[in-house]
Amino acid sequence: MTRKDYNKLAHALRIGYSTNDERNNADTTSLYLSIVETIGQMLAVDNERFDKARFVEACLHNVTLHSGFQKGN
After folding, report:
1. Among 55, 69, 70, residue whose Cα is nearest residue 2
2. Could you tell me if residue 65 is inside a domain?
């Protein structure tokens, strides 16, 4: 995959989460963060130059998480 593909994937994840009516639910937020983390780990295994932290940040860009969660945790 290329950086362009990673950006598209992060964008799709953001849109999917942001348009979910249940996004203000702690369980939904937890699931989203788990999915982002798991995909990030998978991509890191697939590509040694992949920057997982950058991918996670891209997935959280302009995303409002449930009040019990903070970005960067």
Report:
1. 55
2. no
What are the tens digits of pLDDT across the range 5-49? 999 999 999 999 999 888 888 999 999 999 999 999 999 999 999
Domain total in the chain: 1
State the Cα–Cα distance between residues 43 and 65, nearest whole angstrom.
23
Is 47 a domain residue?
Answer: yes
Considering the domain boundaries, does residue 11 fall inside one?
Answer: yes
Is residue 30 in a domain? yes
pTM for this one?
0.88
Please name which of 13, 21, 26 lies closest in space to residue 62, comparing C-alpha atoms: 13
Radius of gyration of the chain (CA): 12
